UniProtKB/TrEMBL annotation:
<dbReference type="InterPro" id="IPR018062">
    <property type="entry name" value="HTH_AraC-typ_CS"/>
</dbReference>
<protein>
    <submittedName>
        <fullName>AraC-like DNA-binding protein</fullName>
    </submittedName>
</protein>
<dbReference type="InterPro" id="IPR020449">
    <property type="entry name" value="Tscrpt_reg_AraC-type_HTH"/>
</dbReference>
<dbReference type="GO" id="GO:0003700">
    <property type="term" value="F:DNA-binding transcription factor activity"/>
</dbReference>
<dbReference type="InterPro" id="IPR018060">
    <property type="entry name" value="HTH_AraC"/>
</dbReference>
<dbReference type="GO" id="GO:0043565">
    <property type="term" value="F:sequence-specific DNA binding"/>
</dbReference>
<keyword id="KW-0804">Transcription</keyword>
<feature type="domain" description="HTH araC/xylS-type">
    <location>
        <begin position="233"/>
        <end position="331"/>
    </location>
</feature>
<keyword id="KW-0805">Transcription regulation</keyword>
<dbReference type="InterPro" id="IPR053142">
    <property type="entry name" value="PchR_regulatory_protein"/>
</dbReference>
<dbReference type="Pfam" id="PF12833">
    <property type="entry name" value="HTH_18"/>
</dbReference>
<dbReference type="InterPro" id="IPR009057">
    <property type="entry name" value="Homeodomain-like_sf"/>
</dbReference>
<keyword id="KW-0238">DNA-binding</keyword>
Amino acid sequence: MKESLPVLLKKNLQHIPIGKYEITNYSGDDNDTIISSSHITVEMDNRSKGQMEDFPLFTGIELLFYRFLGSKVYSRHEAFEHVIEINYCQDGSMGWNMNNGTNIYLGAGDLSIHSMTRCANSELTFPLHYYNGVSITIDITRIATTLPEILKEAGVSGQNLYQKFCALPKPVFVQQNNKVIQIFNDLYNAPCTMKTAYYKLKVQELIILLLSMDVCEEKIVNPYYEQQVNLINEIHSLLTQNLEQYFTIDELSKKFFINTSALKETFKSVYGAPIASYMKEYRMKKAMELLRTTDYHISEIANNVGYQSQSKFTAAFKDITNLLPSEYRRLNR
């Protein structure tokens, strides 16, 4: 069975102590040379850790890869009005409680753009307890005289980037645009040699694509506010603490006084999947834990995670893991 991303992240970050953040800085030349690597202490919850790789691509333009395990980290920096930040979620999900009380949630394939004045002294949460994503920063004061020729020919300037994406009353949020997803998939599958050169090519392609978009025609998702997010978290607690019960959307809507459309949309944005899909996977993860750590009969485990029929549980388990429950237990004991 292919290992899940959280399992792979745990392996890749196991050398980083809890509460620490590893920063690796690259030279920005085509040799992909590491010039420094260090562990620093940042403000996060006491079970989190993270990793950042920083590639300076051009004067004023940087590409950063982020990996987090845990549930919360804080971002403390100056309010850089002149720096544009593009954030993309490759895997997992991220909630961003910005300093004006606005919450933005990125699920896999989602992208947001804003000036870094919006995210100074902000809180990042990871509802799935992991995050794998990319940030691109563009300092519009530094690129004024050093913009790459390809971007110049495309009509890109710091001023038109700022006016399009940062002069709006709220951050721009583009949900699962296929062309954007393809570019970031390419970044994650860059050739092992000449990575920096490849990154330069793809980031320029992304900037031109974003500037060509009609923001009004894109699917722009409104930010979520703290009260709405807290309500969704309450619903999540009810669902995950009562696995033996099944709640319909209508029942949840009436119980928590939220309309069904807002419930479905906000839950997916916060937790990265529709309620039914999320809960099926959650039940299977709980079943995997019980198979690994207890001697319960499979029918008992099925009942514990909400399946009265062992055959239906077995089918659901195999759909998620490609293994029968008995096979999974044998391989993981």
